[in-house]
Amino acid sequence: MMIRDRILFPFWATLLCLMMATPSAASAKPTLDTMFSPLLADPLEPRIAVMPWLDKDYLQLDIGSSADLYQNEEGNFAFGIDFATYSLLQRSSNFKFPVDTIDYLFGVNFSWQKELEQCQLPFDTLSARVRLSHISAHFEDGHYDEDAGAWIGADTHPLGIPFTYSREFLNMVVALSSDDLRAYLGYQFLWHTIPDNINRHSFQAGLEVNTPGNTYLAADFKLLPVWDVTKKETDTFRGTWNLQAGWKLDAIGVEHVRIACNHFTGMSRHGMYFFDDESYTTLGVIVDL
Questions:
Q1: DSSP string of 215-256?
Q2: What's the pLDDT at 148?
Q3: Which residue among 46, 82, 101, 115 has the highest number of C-beta atoms inside a 10 angstrom radius?
């Protein structure tokens, strides 16, 4: 596995550098105005977000974005890049935020859209996005007891600490949308994963509705494999929900910024806790660059 990781990293890095250097007659520079709009309630979209937990002393801090490197003149095809970090911080006294764990994601994406004519459904656009991505996760200083000189929970963690979490995957999303409504379905396939023996398939569905006053409601549902810590393999699947209500600040001249309240329940989004079942509510600010 270690040899394969050393091969994969330079491959991804070279591919990203080449794509960033590729000239284009239709679009000669990257644009953050991506053809496929970010999924509002998906907690693993690249974004900038500060989301304190309301029921526990944790803080989610996300830093990332997607950028289209190329959009064709017809406006129906694009390819771009994704970079993101997803951090879980502890909230402590004296305005300190020790980082418990952090996930790193990077990859490339391809987008396509088509205007629908005489559609019987309340949609006018069909769109799709395909992503090729790598994600890895790591415990940080907030998960280390300096006085004891040991990782917190090392004796009880089912995989031991430290352990390697790394995945390469293909993610596909197809959406129907209009000005005030979007519905989507998704599928994800893991072609390489550490730890292994986890089911390679997961599924996704979601709905986004614009409501009065520049507010919105969004729901993201994933059917994710559950990794049994005793068997060290996938045992079943678990539904994972992220429900979001928010206010887009475009009406007051602040574009791409929203105040959002989330309720998450299901399998943890963080790789170091990928086998854990979590439930929490957050309230904060999200920036979709």
A1: EEEEEEEEEEEEEETTTTEEEEEEEEEEEEEEEEGGGGT-TT
A2: 78
A3: 46
